[in-house]
Amino acid sequence: MEKMAQDAQRRSLLKLGLASGLSAGGLLAGCGGDSAAAPDTRISSFALAVLPDTQFYSRYATSSESSQYERHYGTEPYAAQTSWVARNAQALNIPFLIHLGDVVDQVGKPEQWKVADGAMQVLEAAKVPYSILAGNHDVLNDIDFDSDPGKGTDTQRVLANEPYLQWFGARRAQRQATFGARDGTGFHEYHIFTAQDQQFLVLSLSWRISDAGIAWARKVLADHPTLPAILVNHQLLNIAPDAVSPLETGYGKMLWEKLIRDNDQIFMTLNGHHHGGARLTKTNDFGNAVEEMVVDYQMAYQGGNGLMRLYEFDLTNNQIKVLSFSPWVPMKPADTLNAFDRAVLTESNHSFTIDINFAKRFARFNSGFSAGKATVASSLVEQARALVLKGYTEPAIVAPVAPKDADDYPKVASTVAHWRFYGGSDGAPVAPGTRIADVTGANPLVRDQLNQGGIVGAAVGDIVWSSDHHRLSSAPGSVSFLNTDKNAPRLSYFLTDATAAINAQTFATTGYTIEAFVKINPAWDKAKHAWMNIMTRDGKRGGLAGFDGGDPESPPLLFAISSLREVQWEVVPDVGGQRDAMASWSGEIIAGNWVHIAIVNDPSTHDTVMYVEGAPVLRNSSHVVGLASLSATSPWVVGGGSWDGARADGFFGNIGEVRVASAALPPGQWLTARRA
């Protein structure tokens, strides 16, 4: 009877282990078969969970932003991330989680802090310790190091006013079993965690550390001279325009000189802030490698789509294995999934392995470092990958069809204007006065004469014909806007005639679809080209009756590229009474890549949704009725805009074709689709 009871108990444990994916501690490795006959393949390994910038998860889960995640998907990505870690910490031997900062998007909005508070409480309830830091969005005075190295540091803040310290102060940090201390400002902290019989130090430094903060950090290292250290910042390493290569920042170089290069304990750095993923190996003063890594998915689909990382430290095989994945994507309803919903990223800058002989790398300051006991059945990142993908089916992707000819696109009866920029020889100037036909025949565009409305230095060759075009645009060319410089100010553009029928359109009852194919010039420079316009309406929106919003000098319609290379669609609605501008925003657009943008306004709800390359963006507006204009003769402008009545903010790059329709068109009727 006793043996039967033991067998039943053993079967119960085995079932529990398989159901939860348990492997750490060797439960699965010891079950079944002749253990003496099989080689022991267990390893000594642990994993760190890393949360990149969560700012949009905090913002767009709030009621003031229409609870967009819950409304569309029934769940929220921030809570999905922390719940996944809490649920799998034991199974995947995760002793610690690292947050890279930008906890919220708008520091002064308590509702966003409440979302973050709730998500991090999940870890606290599960006894999973974590470090956290303030990013630039988490402090009241956000000044970049490169713009002014002497201002905006931790010691220049009124600490009692800082929301970060109120929501994630020292008292809360002390709840973590790994907590060591915070500095005098309360913005920087360190933790010590134990994994596989070894201790590691995590030094987590908030936005814009002062010399006093660096002195504190150096003392932490000096007080723990044998501990391998991971340095965590919000900003340190950047990413080059190719979206893959590492790019050093002024702030990162400062930290290297003042903190990293002569502290051999720091073997690895992690930071967010810059959008995407990259890594750089540097050599410190002792001839040892320091692995620097940046990861931030906030500009990806849905504000990051729940993407996070797992760093496995395989002490047996001397490797750090990196997995970038989303525990949220498999939770989404199947009918909401599209090509951008990837549960696991496989690109080399998001999934990679770093070879590191831990004992040799740490030998100078920790001669006793060892791999520890082999208690883990197999690679933790591979186990995590299997857990994430279990039961999940990738959405069926319909491959887009390239156009067969210049007429291979859906014709729609609701077309108000359709401008197709092609016809000249590659590189030939588009002369001032050149008219671009409207497919409907009603609203041709004309290149304006040079140097009108305050423009200085514009030349004939500032707009040229190009055969370059988006792969799904049937228009076999584009126009390229060159030499644009907002500081000169120098720009060239096209505009409709004062008598064009489209000038009187407001689309208040019909809804609308605006489409454009654009490519930002690879030489785009924030200082010269930030807030450049794809298309605008002339006039100052401050002159609209009832307007009570910001930037009254701006046009009533802005279809632009922001200082962060986001697509901005911002319009004043065509309604009575008080009104402000309302906007949709994309994530970052990579310079040098063609993108198709569609902005769709529903005629019944008047919700506006922007799509980039077919994917709906996260940040949209609701109840936007029509497009207000100053008059029925105010022209539409392509490739330029205005500020306070003067021409400004010209486009820098290529525009292929633009279509305006007085209906909310489905994707099957967009210019990326093919004719019936």
What does this structure look like?
The protein is of the alpha+beta class and 676 residues long. It has two domains: 45-367, Metallo-dependent phosphatases (Purple Acid Phosphatase, chain A, domain 2, 4-Layer Sandwich); 415-669, Jelly Rolls. The strands form six sheets. Strands 16, 19, 20, 22, 27, 28, 29 and 33 form an eight-stranded antiparallel beta sheet that branches. Strands 17-18-21-30-23-24-25-26 form an eight-stranded antiparallel beta sheet, with no helix packed on it. A hairpin with a 4-residue loop joins strand 24 (557-561) and strand 25.
Q: Indicate the overall shape.
A: elongated
Mean pLDDT: 93
CATH topology of the largest domain: Purple Acid Phosphatase, chain A, domain 2
CATH architecture of the largest domain: 4-Layer Sandwich
What is the number of E strands?
33
Question: What's the domain count?
Answer: 2
Question: Number of helical segments?
Answer: 12
- Beta percentage is 25-35%
Q: What structural category arises from helix and sheet content?
A: alpha+beta
CATH superfamily of the largest domain: Metallo-dependent phosphatases
Can you give the helix content as a percent range?
10-25%
Q: How widely separated are the two ends?
A: 75 Å
Radius of gyration: 28 Å
Low-pLDDT segments, ≥5 res:
1-35
CATH class placement of the largest domain: Alpha Beta
Main sheet overview: 8 strands, antiparallel
GO molecular function: hydrolase activity
Organism: Duganella vulcania
Pfam families: Laminin_G_3 (PF13385), Metallophos (PF00149)
Domain Calcineurin-like phosphoesterase: 77-275
